[in-house]
Amino acid sequence: MNSELGTALDPLALEDATTLPTYAKPPLALVRGENATVWTHDGRELLDLYGGHCVALLGHCPPRVVEAIRHQAGELLFYSNAVYSPIRAEASKRLVDMAPPALTHVFWCNSGTEANEAALKLARTVTGRSRIVAMTEAFHGRTLGALATTWGDAYHEPYRAILPETTFVPFGWEGAVDEALASGDVAAVILEPIQSMAGITEAPPAYYRALREICDRHGTLLVFDEVQTGVGRTGTFTYGEHIDVTPDIVTLAKSLGAGVPVGAALVNSRVADTVKSGDQGTTFGGGMLAMAAVHAALGQIADENLMDRALELEAAFRKRLEGASGVVEVRGRGCLLGVELDRAAKPVAAALRDEHSIMVGTSKHPHTLRLMPPLTTPLAAAAAFADALDAVLNES
């Protein structure tokens, strides 16, 4: 036994000693959660407005989802989608019923990057073309296909020689998309309708409608990456419903399983009609445990009108934050909000966590905090956050 590991009883030290580094982590380990509250290994209680990277849509350990997982685990923990499954059939129907009517079929996978990989692969198959158009500042994942459409040399440099061909155009400028598609070899245009990692930025509704028309004119598929915006987080099940735009493919993940890893690509009949048995495959995608979580989560969203609640929470946060000292702008929709400050965001986020026990996110925009609270967050959390933010800004 490695002597260093044998003495590393502290969970922070033990994890650092045994796992490859991913993110720069704060010095705390979480052991329990309930709704919008989490507890650390040393007993601290924090208000979580970050949701584990935009995942905890229904709060931590939502009882309805927990019970569905427990029941399914006692019946059949897993079998691959090489066989039919009642819970997969029910989850698929519930998802398709809640999605825009034109999106008629679903491909199940395990994560957002896998969903985007499937979308790009499907687009190439449907169109017979190879090139993809993506947006500057976009983030679509870190597996090779999705990585090719993620903006930034830091992501691309180690893999540039093997990345699929992608053309980047400025987000929000439809003319650049029209020009890029004129070559006739573009399979898909992919974008996040709200660019989350870029600091919660969105374009005017006319932009997305123009993209729909441009893609139709050039025979190119339109893909919305709704890994963060989807499943009701912005007040409608998909962002496109806000602006009356239905893409050919919508990808979902994060909030979809209320904490259980799962991804999905929703497609229209044009795409679905081209797929033959064996074209797509996944061992764990559509597994019973994940499907039980999805079915329960979607049921709770519908039964409790939680998409309306997303807009109530947005209004509560905006009321307290817009015009507040030190706040430049509040961007986003529903429970996906960016709070731009007049100073660097990372020290503010650290102070909120360490001094006021509130978890928030940051972004590639150096002055923007990201708020991704559960739809079940108490409305009073908006005031608690605003008061803590004001205290931090006045201290710094």
UniProtKB/TrEMBL annotation:
Does the keyword Transferase belong to this entry?
yes
Which cofactor does this sequence's record say it needs? pyridoxal 5'-phosphate
Origin: domain of life: Bacteria
Q: Which UniProt keywords apply?
A: Aminotransferase, Pyridoxal phosphate, Transferase
- GO molecular function per UniProt: identical protein binding; pyridoxal phosphate binding; transaminase activity
- Tell me any Pfam family this protein matches: Aminotran_3
Question: Which Gene3D superfamilies does UniProt cross-reference here?
Answer: Aspartate Aminotransferase, domain 1 (3.90.1150.10), Type I PLP-dependent aspartate aminotransferase-like (Major domain) (3.40.640.10)
Which family is this protein grouped under? Belongs to the class-III pyridoxal-phosphate-dependent aminotransferase family.
UniProt-recorded name of the protein: Acetylornithine aminotransferase
